[in-house]
Each structure stands twice: as C-alpha cells, then as structure tokens.
Amino acid sequence: MFGSRKPPAKRSRDEAEKPFWISFSDLMTALMVLFLVAMAVALLSVTTGLRKMDDGRANRDQAISTCLNSIRQITQKAEYAGMTLRGQTLELGTLAEFPKDSHVLATDRAVFLRSFVPQMLHMARTPDCQNWLKRWVLEGYASPEGSYLYNLNLSLERSQRVLCVLLDANAPNALDQEDRKTIRELFFVGGSSFNSAILNQPEKSRRVELRLEFKELRNRCEANAPDCEIDEVRPIPWDDDFKCPMDKR
User: Fold this and answer.
1) Is 193 helix (H, G, I), strand (E, B) or coil?
2) Are 220 and 134 contacting, i.e. CB atoms less than 8 angstroms apart?
3) 46-218+231-248: CATH number
4) Which residue in 68, 114, 141, 220 has its CB near the most CB atoms, within 10 A?
5) What's the rounded Cα separation, in Å, for the pair 135 and 45?
6) Cβ-count burial 187-209 (b if 16+ within 10 Å, e if not)
7) Domain extents for the chain?
8) What is the pTM of this model?
C-alpha cells in the first residue's frame, strides 16, 4: 500500500551480542598471555637461582679441595713423616703425643709445633682457604685408663697446652705477633675422652689433632653484597700476658 513502511528487519541475536563476545575473548586471551609470561619469568628466576647455587657449591668444593691438597703437600715432606690428613682432620702422629696422665708436652715436640703451625697459617691466608675456612679446632684425646670425666678434662688440658706452646712469645722459636693473633682468632679447643681411643695402643690415644672447619655456602657473603647480612663479631682484645694458666697450678 502506498505510503506504508516496511518494518525494519530485526537484528539477529548473535549479531547484537557479537561485539561483546569478541571483547571478552580478547580479554581472556590477554590474561592467559600475562599468566604465561609471569610463569615464564618465575621459572627463569628459580632456574637462575638454582644455577647460581650449583655454581657456588661447585666453586666452594673446588676451593676447599685445593686448600686441603695444599696442606697435604706440606705433610708429605720428609721432616713431617707420620703426619696424615684424613678428610678435614690433620693427624699429627707422634709429634703431638703426651705422656700418660699428663698435659705437659716434650720440648722437642713444642719446638716442632712452633715451626709447623706457621706453615698451616700461611696456607690459611691463601684465597682458596681464606674465603671458606671458618676455624681450626684443636682436639685433645686421652687413653681409656681412668674415669670418663677425668680423661675429658685431661684431653681439654692437652688442647690448651698446645695453644700455650703456640702463643708463648718468649720461646726460642716463638711465632711472630701476626701468627699469634691469627691463632687467637681462628683456633678453638675441644676435648674427647674415650670417643677416639686407639685399641691396644694407649700411647697413641694421648694425642692432639687439628681439624679444619669450613663455612657453609649459605653463611658466606661476598664482599659489598647488598643483600648480605653479616653478624657483627667483636675482635678479641690483644694483651701481652702469655703465661699459660696451667703452669700456675
């Protein structure tokens, strides 16, 4: 009919909603991409951290091995026959044995220790040792004769006697002041009663051994590292009193 209007065609439902679903799908795709990127960055960070730990552990093991090999080479000299490096423990053999029921060290053995230990301190100052060496532990031992507590005290006295020998500034072959300061900072005393007695050889149980302890990987900080927390250590005040307390008893 003339003048009649054709009703407008209805837009399909799909056509009306199409712009909305396109935007939603794009949003989901973008979120998925961001998630994958975040996961990739996280995995890369974890992998890098693990690689650094593995590298650090390998470097530590190599440095410690080099340090111990240097010490082993010293013990293989003819004048140090009888000394053995087992793992991280330096067995001094007959050169650091004591008489029965005594903490007194023979003069020739005291002279030997004052000539030998400075070489160990020299090795401790090399980069491979210095970066990882934590301390030296003087471990005294006693033979099975006697009571447990008596021998425990005797083994401690033997370790202390070695320190007195090394810190004696008036001895004929006394260590220089730098070495004595290093001993005071790095040497610790330990004792054991029957724990490491040598069967059927009591004279070899009356001895002192030198054990090396190294820093763990997580406890070592690189110089000037911003995320490194170092416990403040108060330096040991220096004094000129070199008298051995056991000699006053």
Assistant:
1) coil
2) no
3) 3.30.1330.60
4) 141
5) 34
6) bebebbbbeebeeeeeebbbbbb
7) 46-218+231-248
8) 0.71
